[in-house]
Design brief:
By secondary structure, the protein is α/β, with parallel strands linked by helices. The chain folds into 2 domains: about 120 residues, Response regulator (Rossmann fold, 3-Layer(aba) Sandwich), CATH 3.40.50; about 70 residues, Winged helix-like DNA-binding domain superfamily/Winged helix DNA-binding domain (Arc Repressor Mutant, subunit A), CATH 1.10.10.10. Strand 1, helix 1 and strand 2 form a beta-alpha-beta unit. Helix 2 packs parallel to helix 3 and helix 7 packs across helix 10. The longest helix is centred in the middle third of the chain and has 27 residues. The chain is rod-shaped. The two termini are about 50 Å apart.
Length: about 210
């Protein structure tokens, strides 16, 4: 397992080496320029990068130079936005530079086994963002289905979502109950819901 350590801070670099050199083959660089040269020369199984060494543009160049290397970014002041930004650019690990030795060793094991290592706050933010996007898509899908309804069908669908019976809807709209049933058949077909419950869920989601 070949690991490249990228850091200009002697104390941090020494800490990484002391922890990893007994189990891995290590190389080191201390500038972004050296990092790009080494990445272009040969791939590494894992690259540990100290965040102060690079910016996003430099990272993109490195990612292009060594697309198969797994990259673990360690930041002196990690935060959700930074973690998500670099996660989208291709890192598979993100943590505090001063993470405990035990946790750092565990993170390296997890990453080299093919998994992703993220701090709890970044993971929570990622989950929330994913949930928000899923919810937005569900709402958009609901609205698209409901847009196909006529004004009268939308009125009936809304009353269904409020739990009203066919008889109550007929009375409220001053139409025959059989007319309500006819509209419901059309509504179920257009919205692909098939039941009062599914229709109510669709209305409430949209």
């Amino acid at each position: 397992m070949d690991i490249l350590l990228c850091c200009a801070d002697d104390a941090v670099l020494k800490r990484w080496k002391d922890l990893l050199e007994s189990n891995y083959d290590l190389e080191q660089v201390i500038t972004a320029r050296e990092l790009k040269i080494r990445c272009a020369a040969s791939p590494f199984d894992l690259i540990l990068i100290h965040r102060p060494l690079i910016d996003t543009d430099t990272f993109i160049e490195i990612r292009r130079a060594t697309p198969l290397s797994r990259i673990f970014l360690l930041s002196d002041q990690p935060d959700e936005e930074e973690g998500l930004t670099f996660l989208k650019l291709g890192i598979v690990g993100y943590a505090n530079t001063y993470i405990s030795s035990e946790r750092l060793a565990e993170a390296v094991r997890v990453i080299t086994s093919g998994a992703v290592w993220l701090g709890q706050k970044v993971m929570q933010r990622l989950i929330l963002d994913s949930y928000a996007k899923t919810k937005e898509k569900a709402v958009a899908d609901s609205e698209k289905k409901l847009d196909s309804l006529t004004k009268r069908e939308r009125e009936i669908a809304n009353l269904i979502s409020q739990g009203q019976t066919n008889l109550e809807i007929a009375a409220n709209l001053d139409i025959a109950e059989r007319t309500v049933k006819a509209h419901l058949s059309s509504i179920y077909e257009k919205t692909k819901t098939g039941s009062r419950l599914n229709l109510a869920l669709l209305i409430n989601r949209g």
